[in-house]
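Below is how a single chain appears once it has passed through the pipeline. First comes the sequence as given, then the structure the pipeline wrote out for it. We keep one example in the README because the format questions we get most often are answered faster by looking than by reading.
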Amino acid sequence: MYEPRTYLALSIGPIYKTIQRARKTRELWAASFLLSQYMRCILKRMEKEKFGIALSPDVDSLGSQDKYHGAGIWNDNAFYEITADTDVVKRDLPGLLQEAKAEFIDLILTGFRTGKTDSGKTQKWPFDQEAQLTAIIGQHFHCKAVLHTRLNGQTEIPILKELNRLLNSADQLHTAPPRYDDWVSTAMFHAATVLALYNKGFDVHDPVFTPLRYGRRLPSLMEIATREFKKEAHKGVYNEVVKVIEANYGDNDDNAETDAENISILKLLKAEKDANGQTVFRKRHKYLAIVQSDGDGVGSHVTNSPDLGYVKRFSKQLMNFSKSAVQKIVGYDGLPVYAGGDDLLFIAPLRNAKDETLFDLLKKLNDAFAEQPILHEAGGTLSFGVSIFYYKSPMSESLEEGRKQLFQIAKKLKYKSLGAADTSEKNALAFRVLLHGGQAFGAAIQQKGKAWDRWAALLKDAQSTNDLAFISGLVHRLELLGILLEAACDNGNAEHFFKNHFNEARGKQLEFVEKVRDLAIAIYEQYGTLDFDDDHIARTFFKGQFHIETRDEVEVVSPKNRRRHYCNNLLYSALRLIQFQQAEDND
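Resulting structure:
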């Protein structure tokens, strides 16, 4: 006889709409942290009422005193196996969710209750009463709940898969009209609200804060971009930068990130010299990265498991990875925003004070993911979408670009190596560098194999090169010879090709050309054919990496030409990254 079991699925939102409202680092952090706190408010009450057993996320950390450097670690979805009386749960769950939302809204209303703007003036709210703003915020945020009873053993559909389907098909809840979005944002991002969130999210002397003598402030985009100047050799100028920030800092924390402050910081940094009297500041110091990650097949793997004990163990190891990832991001001098299992969102400099690069950090995160036994046994890997952007660029656009790089490019990279029967995918990195002048370049690469090893090594080895004119000429000539390069690599004539076309190279230039040659060979061997489900995916994939004129789109996306354009672009991208990272700032 089949035994009836009841399960509960919870989903909060809106996630994307809320995150996209952020314009500054503190706002992005606050939006993510608030959403994480919303789920935490719900989970705390669920555990107190003992309605059931949490399947996901792992709730053992609810009582922890560790604040995880302010990162939002609580997912937007939660799943429970109900062990209490179902009728009691049906009766009490609406009140529980309402109490959780009230606590969450109470956090947001901190700024409203001060009655002041961020500049200290009287706030001109369009509402006479707090109740009106409370109602609008309450409509903006929602929690969908699905209670589902089924006879265990009667169906082979795993319960998490069924609950996800029910959540997705649940009626979309009514939300506040769009005309109120600005007021919700004003309440969320009010300085008094953010400062209150600092107390909940961080230890007093958390290293993610700018080290001010008094007060606390999350680093601005400019500060994150120039983290490299924290090294001992530039300690003096870094201390001067902190003084500029202190002079601009107010109790309301909203004098931050002004143009005047950034100009003062840039003036100091551009005047800094190395031991040889050379200018230290480079173009890269005006750029930084927003990084998003997602596990490859992780969600479907755990969702498709019929073993609920396994699901719980899987959830615990995802939580362990979240905590480890946060430590590595902070250790690199990045700002962790969200770390919910395999989903990460963070802001980071392109290079830090230890001369580590962003790609070094991504490798550490990949390694940390693989260190979790169950995740490793399940074949779990991470893919990354990286948006590298100018510090004055709109943050919402950079967030959207990172999301596109992850889901429209990294997640769509599928190929077969020469002589291989099986398609390879997953564990990909896609990035796009959007320059201040409007030009852009990018690429997608799987984070394993000989091509990846040589691609990453070339970037590392050329970290201090100054022969940018030679590299520029190399890129230009390779672009002109793209068809011949493909033929040479496929026919085993790459060595002859590079000797013939770059015979003037000597010394270190010759060594560099040989490394480029070896990378080209590895790329063409590893990426024997590209596989796309349809032409639309192929067009989106290529457009997300480099600019394609409409007249050239058919030629680039054509199945017979895709591999050449992909492989050559991957080679060029390494050379362009070297140029970009070492280029002098001429603005």
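The chain has a mean pLDDT of 88.

See the next section for the split statistics.
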